[in-house]
Specification:
The protein has seven helices and seven strands, in the order βαααββααβαβαββ. It has 216 residues and is an alpha+beta fold.
């Protein structure tokens, strides 16, 4: 049986990326049913990256039958996505992604009774205000990334390998540093980033950690 391996993203992986984002969006846990529309988290934190920079998306492919999300037979169990120029991405988002997002999600839906890290109103605001990504250090750390792995893939070294793959791709483009934001409640992710050598940026806050690292 073939082992999981990292490869470039393909358009056929889009639904898997959607699913993985959703299933890891609640402090690292499953956010299914947390919001009135399960598409909200993926439409803010995953799908626009696939549209804008598919060449900076990498996935972990598991060829084993039935090994995908929820036993669906899908093959992708994790991903890293990013952009090389956050300023340019924010401009594209305002022009290309934000208007459609606003039409799809004009106002918060009915409460689900779940306790999210982000309120639905905050997610809707994030979907139409990409300037939130223009952190104080954006000129020093122009790239940013998101990484998500399903639980069955964690602890096997794929997170580090995905980050290294993206860092190498950014370095090839002449990008010297990359940053990320994270959920302060996800202590496991913070320990992972610390092990990889990420450090807190000066504008980081306890409730909204910002971490950066050089690409080489």
């Amino acid at each position: 049986m073939s082992a999981p391996f990292i490869r470039p993203y393909r358009p056929a992986d889009r639904d898997d990326v959607f699913e993985i984002c959703l299933r890891t969006a609640a402090g690292g846990g499953d956010a299914t049913g947390v919001y009135s529309d399960d598409a909200l988290m993926p439409e803010v934190f995953a799908l626009p990256y696939l549209e804008y920079a598919p060449d900076l998306a990498f996935v972990v492919d598991d060829p084993s039958t039935g090994s995908g999300p929820r036993g669906s037979g899908r093959r992708v169990l994790g991903y890293v996505i990013g952009v090389a120029d956050t300023r340019a991405f924010a401009e594209w988002w305002n022009r290309e992604w934000g208007p459609g997002f606003r039409e799809r999600h004009p106002h918060p839906g009915p409460p689900t009774g779940r306790n999210p890290g982000f309120t639905e109103a905050q997610l809707l605001d994030a979907g139409v205000h990409p300037e939130r990504m223009l952190i104080a250090e954006v000129d020093e750390y122009p790239a940013h990334l998101h990484i998500d792995l399903l639980p069955e893939l964690q602890g096997q070294g794929f997170g580090r390998r995905l980050i290294d793959t993206l860092r190498a791709a950014l370095a090839e483009r002449g990008v010297t540093a990359v940053h990320l934001g994270m959920d302060a409640a996800n202590t496991g992710a913070r320990a992972f980033y610390d092990r990889l050598g990420f450090h807190e940026l000066p504008s980081s806050r306890p409730d909204a950690p910002l971490l950066g690292i050089a690409t080489r």
